[in-house]
Amino acid sequence: MESGKKINLLLEDASNEETENSADIDSFDRTIVTIKFEEVFQERGEYSSNELAGIYFQGTQYFDFKNVYFINNTGIANLIDLIKSLLKQGVAIKFVNVREKIKDKFKSMGLEFIFNCS
Amino acid sequence: MSPKLEKYTFLIKPMFFIFSLLFASWLVLKIEKLRPSDFGKERYLFEDEPVPSIAKYDEQYLKNLFLEYKFGIINSRQLDEKLEFFLKPIQKAGVKKN
Amino acid sequence: MKQFYFHKFEDRKPYSAIPDNKYRTLLFQFTGIITVTLGIAYLHWRWRYSLNTEALWFALPLVLAESLSFFSTVMIVINFWSNKDAKKAPPVHYLSEIEDLDGRTERPVKIDVFIATYNEDVELVRQSIQDAKNMEYPFFDVSIKIYVLDDGRRDGRDATKENMKIVAEEEGVEYKIREHNEGYKAGNLKNALEHTKGDLFVILDADTRVFPNFLINTSGYFRREKVAWVQTPQWFYDTTEAQKLSTIIISKLNIENKHLSRFVNIMFGRIKMNEDIFGNDPRLFYDAILRKRNFYNAAFCCGAGSIHRREATMSLAIKDFADGLKKLETDLISKKINSVEINDQKNILLLKQEIIPFKFHASEDIYTSIMLHADKENNWESIQHADIECKMLSTQDLDSWIKQHQRYAAGSLDIAFKDNPVLIKGLSLGQKICYFSTIWSYFAPLWIMVFLLSPIVFFFTLSLPVKTYSFDFLKYFLPFQLMNTITITLGCWGISTKRGDQYYISSFWFMLMALFSVLKGKEVKFNVTPKGKHFAKNTQHILPHIIIISLTVLGIMYNSVLVFKGYHPCVSGFFTNFFWCIFNIVSLSIMIRAAQWKPLESD
């Protein structure tokens, strides 16, 4: 189902005070795993998790955007908050396998230099 | 409205605006030409009446002029000047008529 | 239940929106064109032929004031040019009805209702919450969540304050606070948007009480994918009632004698005064000015009583965020800093920069509206809904009224000086004119001041600003004024403009102060408008009015003596100025009456 592949990226509670104010590794880990694909994943039942997996390697957090087909402005705002909260802790962020359509959206918003995409 | 005319309906609005503009311009021109006398007998409602000119078609005026000359109140040069002043509008009117 | 003064107004019914009439619109356009043409002819005559060269110090300011005032007239004609009410649509159910799913799974829409509060009586807020809870919606699966956004942090931590959190809990609604007040109301909304997920959100003030059909009547507009927000008219249901003149006299003079009271009643009982003494009724603004801006897609948001598309608000926030960063980066490059350093600095800037959905500004609503309208990539649309869907409280004393209106003025003027809509790229010509028209109206005290002082100057110097008040003066001036009155009447058809006109003139002093404070570069503060009655001493506010009226009356008396004795050099000038003064005094006196106003015991 083509439509089922497109997902609405919304980050839940990434900017809550607990995460923002905390610098210890536990809360840091929680920050990473709280990227949630709301609703769509749950309803499709196609994936076991409703979270986007991130891999931490040599000071950079990598997120695989292979399955991300759609992102709205609230989702972008949440990603920015995520980048900022990781940056505070000295962690860089990189999005891999980002689709052209999403890259175009970042570009149209003038955000191409904030989102490190490939 | 017939289908033939319907395609010209877009012209109604511009024509209406042009008409409004023309009407407004005409109104301004009309207002510009308004004079107090247009409202009735009162020629000078707000301003003082100008001093009446002595050059009128008035026999009395000419009689007085000649009497003044006869009795030496004015000399020939003054008589000539006053006659000139008196005749000027009449001459002008004559030229226009011709 | 706690009793408030406004409970006796609960049964008041809102006005109905003026029905649109295309023939009236055409007639307005016709008279509008004539008014503007006659105005140009009048000013042409004024500048070219009428100036009294012997008193240019007087003649020039007056003719300049007249020209600036005429410019306002032109903008009013443009603003009122046409009406284009948006087509109503049934309430939305599913997400796909308001935006392209783009492959996402269908779901019912989510609606959030934000009630912003700061220091208002918690029982007053409770009523707003209860009315919000009573909103009806035809689809049970559409989530409607109500949030109390308390910037006063009344969560029980301070025992001296009322507990807003408990009220929210009792009413079963969400309660949100933040630990600072940055950005005032805009900051409060930002915080709410960060913690909520509604596709649409409603903004209400603490005293905004929505009617049950609010969502049913407004959410349908969002079927048009470009609609960013819908503003409904703000209706103040507690404006002061008309008082019998006889009651006022009896009360002020403390008349206790029965026969005398009856006599006063017979004499003055039919005359009514002081209806909406503070000129709070905003009908002219919502039902005429803002509604007609639908034609240019230039109706701006006024905060309370509006419903927004989250995506539109967020798109602006992100765009601003990116633009801010780019600007900072360009600054760094211009300083010839090397790329490694730029990267480091960029990260610092990134951390500093915030995503701000509503501009942090005292006039956040209009500012955000300008920016959304200017977004050419998205071409956002706004809608001024014609019918009243909520009610709220008005200012009940002059001091609060002045503070509120000075904030509006200073906020708009601040935008004009910092981010003038005329210069903003992306706005259409109509939008630029409409926004500029709003800002321009706050410059009005400059020429109102001249109009108020001119007769006084004439009375005491006996100098004329025109060569003479001749027939020519009247033949140009009267048709223009007559057509102007007809045009405004048609534009505001069905709406009384009496109070509005009086306040336009009599608020000159406060608006002038607001203008000066902005020119001095003072920060515009967000004053929360007090809800309730505060009968402060207002005499200092009306001192300029008293001085002008006194000087005018003295001038009339002095000139009357001169006319009577036959010494007056220009009798026609005296009579013209005399009638002008009557208008000035009537307009100024409303502020004095408002300052003295308090409810009669019989009320």
List the helices and strands and how they pair.
The complex is a heterotrimer of chains A (118), B (98) and C (603).
Chain A: H1 2-5, E1 9-11, H2 17-21, H3 25-33, E2 35-37, H4 40-44, E3 54-57, E4 60-64, H5 73-88, E5 92-96, H6 100-108
Parallel strand pairs in A: 4-5
Antiparallel strand pairs in A: 1-2, 3-4
Chain B: H1 3-6, H2 12-33, H3 59-70, H4 76-97
Chain C: H1 22-50, H2 56-79, E1 110-117, H3 122-133, E2 143-150, H4 164-171, E3 174-176, H5 184-194, E4 200-205, E5 209-210, H6 214-218, E6 227-231, E7 235-236, E8 243-244, H7 245-252, H8 258-268, E9 272-273, H9 283-292, E10 306-309, H10 310-334, H11 339-352, H12 364-373, E11 381-384, E12 390-392, H13 398-418, H14 429-441, H15 444-461, H16 471-491, H17 498-506, H18 508-519, H19 543-565, H20 571-596
Parallel strand pairs in C: 1-2, 1-4, 2-3, 6-11, 7-12
Antiparallel strand pairs in C: 4-10, 5-12, 6-10, 8-9
Structural summary, described in words:
The complex is a heterotrimer of chains A (118), B (98) and C (603). By secondary structure, chain A is α+β, with helices and mostly antiparallel strands. Helices cover 41% and strands 17% of the residues of chain A. Chain A is built from 6 helices and 5 strands. Chain A has helices at residues 2-5, 17-21, 25-33, 40-44, 73-88, 100-108; strands at 9-11, 35-37, 54-57, 60-64, 92-96. In chain A, the strands form 2 sheets. A 3-stranded mixed beta sheet of chain A has the order 3-4-5, with helices on one face. A two-stranded antiparallel ribbon of chain A has the order 1-2. Chain A is globular, with a radius of gyration of 14 Å. Chain A starts with a helix and ends in a 10-residue tail after the last helix. Chain B is mainly alpha-helical. In chain B, 61% of the residues lie in helices and 0% in strands. The N and C termini of chain B lie far apart (58 Å). Chain B has helices at 3-6, 12-33, 59-70, 76-97. Chain C contains 20 helices and 12 strands. In chain C, 51% of the residues lie in helices and 8% in strands. In chain C, the strands form 3 sheets. Chain C has a 7-stranded mixed beta sheet with strand order 3-2-1-4-10-6-11, with helices on both faces. The two termini of chain C are 21 Å apart. Chain C is of the alpha/beta class and 603 residues long. Chain C has helices at residues 22-50, 56-79, 122-133, 164-171, 184-194, 214-218, 245-252, 258-268, 283-292, 310-334, 339-352, 364-373, 398-418, 429-441, 444-461, 471-491, 498-506, 508-519, 543-565, 571-596; strands at 110-117, 143-150, 174-176, 200-205, 209-210, 227-231, 235-236, 243-244, 272-273, 306-309, 381-384, 390-392. In chain C, helix 15 (444-461) packs parallel to helix 19 (543-565). Chains A and C meet through helix 1, helix 4 and helix 5 of A and helix 10 and helix 11 of C.
